[in-house]
Amino acid sequence: DADVTLFEGGHTTSDPRLKATIELHGVELADLVGEGVQGKAHATIALGTEDGKPLPLSRLQVRGQAQVPDLRFGRTHYRDATVKFSLGPEAVVIDELVLPVHRSVSPFHAPQVTMPVGEIVARGSVGLQDDPELDLDVKARGVPLRLVARLLKVDVPVRGRIDEGTQLSVRGSLRRPSVAGTVQLQGLSAEGIALGSGQLEVTSEDLPA
Predict the structure, then answer these.
(1) String of DSSP letters for 130-191
(2) CA-CA distance, 182 to 168, in Å (whole number)?
(3) Terminal C-alpha separation, the chain
(4) For residue 205, what pLDDT is reported?
(5) Do residues 101 and 118 lie in contact, with contact meaning Cβ atoms separated by under 8 Å?
(6) Could you tell me if 178 and 170 are in contact, meaning their C-beta atoms sit under 8 angstroms apart?
(7) pTM for this model (two decimals)
(8) Mean pLDDT in residue range 23-29
(9) Residues 66-71: what's their mean pLDDT?
(10) What is the C-alpha to C-alpha distance for residues 181 and 62, in angstroms, rounded to an integer?
């Protein structure tokens, strides 16, 4: 669906006006962002104003939303991940990225049958440079620590979950990120011993070698 205005006042214009809606299905994420992220996205991209009117190409606004039924990243997978975004001249603005966290109802008998237990929600922006700048605010609830351990490729002897009240800011760049914020921990246990709940104040920075 597209609407292009090439003439104004009876003459061709040097800045055509455009409105369009583009539907994309089965987009391989690995082809876009590398092998670290796998899944097939279904996306709707809109060109023009928020209320559906054409805009000159020089001031074109690009907005979109996408859904990934099975997203795999960092040895973990998320079902029905969604993102709403807009494209600026220097960054992708993420209005909302939602990564639902599921667990298997019966890991041994029906590992493919899952139920939602939490989610990770991010808002902010990711730059378009070779080493993209990060400006993200992240909230999380109901995230098992074992999922974090798989993501970081480490062995975490403590069991439990990251829960409501967790807020992190992610800055820096993709290659040199820095993370700061608060992590709320619930249902902690180690070697079968209940440890209760806790709170972590997180500050991390990738320092130059």
Answers:
(1) SS-BEEEEEEEESEEHHHHHHHHT-----EEEEEEEEEEEEEEBSSSEEEEEEEEEEEEEET
(2) 6
(3) 51
(4) 62
(5) yes
(6) yes
(7) 0.80
(8) 91
(9) 92
(10) 31
